[in-house]
Amino acid sequence: MIIVAGAGSAGLTAALAASDRKLEVLLIEPDLRAYLSCNSARSTGMVMAGGTKIQKRSGVDDNWEWLLADILKKNRGRCAMSVVRALVKASAPMVDWLAESHGVDFSVVKEFRYPGHTQFHMHATPSRSGQELVDSLWRAVRRAPQITVLEGCKLTALDVGDGKITGARIQYPDGRHEDIATDTVILATNGFGNRKDWVRRYIPSMAEATYFGGPNSDGSGIEAALKLGAGVGFMSSYQGHATINTETGLLVTYSTVMTGGILINIVGDRFGDETAGYSEFAERIMSQPDRRAYVVFDQSTYEVAIRFRDFREIVAAGAVRSWETTQSLGGGLGLIPSVWHETADTVSRCKAGDIRDRFGRADWGRAWRSPLYSVVVHGALLHTQGGLAVNEHAQVLREIDGEPIIGLYAAGGAAQGISGDGADGYLSGNGLLSAMGLGFIAGNHAGN
Ligand SMILES: Cc1cc2nc3c(=O)[nH]c(=O)nc-3n(C[C@H](O)[C@H](O)[C@H](O)COP(=O)(O)OP(=O)(O)OC[C@H]3O[C@@H](n4cnc5c(N)ncnc54)[C@H](O)[C@@H]3O)c2cc1C
């Protein structure tokens, strides 16, 4: 029997892959509401893959080499190359396997192209929400007779002998501990976004940011492996997000920006090329007055965004305000009239192709069609991307010699990411690719 610690998308995928390989799996999850609270459930559920049958059926030409090129362009080669190659190659088989063998209802997201994506790489379930993705994975896990789920329990330590995993210690809700013998543990416990001292140490620029990920991302899985001498990589790496609506606690889809919207600060000024990436833009918002901004977009963009469930909830909560004219928007939001007038005029001239943007934004979408809309947003830390050093089989590597600790795997936020250091190497989709891709690789490798 193998142990999978953590029932987010990484752990659920790993458990399914291992059980398809006829392994008995004990899936350990401390949070009885993990299907709601884990990062994967909070995510937008966009799963990146290159060359799936699903893409082919919907007329999208793609392959793993193009996906690799997009990832490497964004992270500028700052990654473990063998791991990234393994992930992009696994991406299409993983998505097709989940769709065909486990009933995950993926389709290609063609509504808009994410920053840095040269093809339509994203796959999502119908409501385009992480919650629905996680629900689908849970349904598949519940159907798999070889997976036993132990909810309310947490992995607290690992045992090793002769360089091989020999067991894991788990803690029950009443505080009792039990040592379970096993030769294989897959750590899918996510990163350390909710552990303040580690965030302060590794990502000081985000120490004061709102944390917008799962509450159990406390680094406990990483810590257990560190005690065995595991190495770590890219600990300063994280995904930020520029468009978190704190009134509702929901993420405003970045399609609002990518299809022609802009981000302005509270005086009405833009402060960068919004299309460069929402991750690095989080820090920019935090350096604006009052640490907040507005996304401003038009009716055409609204019609795209309304297809996203979270956006519909933000609208229903009254957090998206509509305005007949740019003047009424400026007045209603209390922007400085001269600043906003200049911004709105520049945007319309950039859209018409009359001038070049001072920040270098090239993709402007069509001229705005009224009404206009605004929604207040903050920058936030979504999840950390640094973690345990792994090889192309998702095996955890020792710090001292880079050799695998036999029987120990890491996937998702518990493993080192593929986005380099800091926030600017994060290509949209790297998170769930690392989670589900490494989970898939780990589960299959454990079963071999
Ligand atoms: C708002 C938001 C939107 C996002 N959108 C996207 C997107 O569209 N596409 C994308 O690619 N990425 C996205 N991401 C990133 C993505 O959600 C994460 O990279 C991914 O969910 C990490 O998956 P995981 O399985 O490693 O972690 P999680 O989904 O957080 O699962 C980890 C699980 O481990 C459990 N756990 C913790 N400690 C222990 C322990 N000691 N023992 C046992 N279990 C433990 C936790 O309770 C949790 O259930 C988004 C993130 C956020 C916050």
UniProtKB/TrEMBL annotation:
Gene3D superfamilies: FAD/NAD(P)-binding domain, Succinate dehydrogenase/fumarate reductase flavoprotein, catalytic domain. The keyword Flavoprotein applies. The keyword Flavoprotein applies. InterPro entries: FAD-dep_OxRdtase_2_FAD-bd, FAD-oxidoreductase_2, FAD/NAD-bd_sf, Succ_DH/fumarate_Rdtase_cat_sf. It comes from the Bacteria. Its cofactor is FAD. One of its GO terms (biological process) is steroid metabolic process. GO terms for molecular function: steroid dehydrogenase activity, acting on the CH-CH group of donors. Pfam families: FAD_binding_2. SUPFAM superfamilies: FAD/NAD(P)-binding domain, Succinate dehydrogenase/fumarate reductase flavoprotein, catalytic domain. Keywords: FAD, Flavoprotein, Oxidoreductase. This is FAD-binding dehydrogenase.
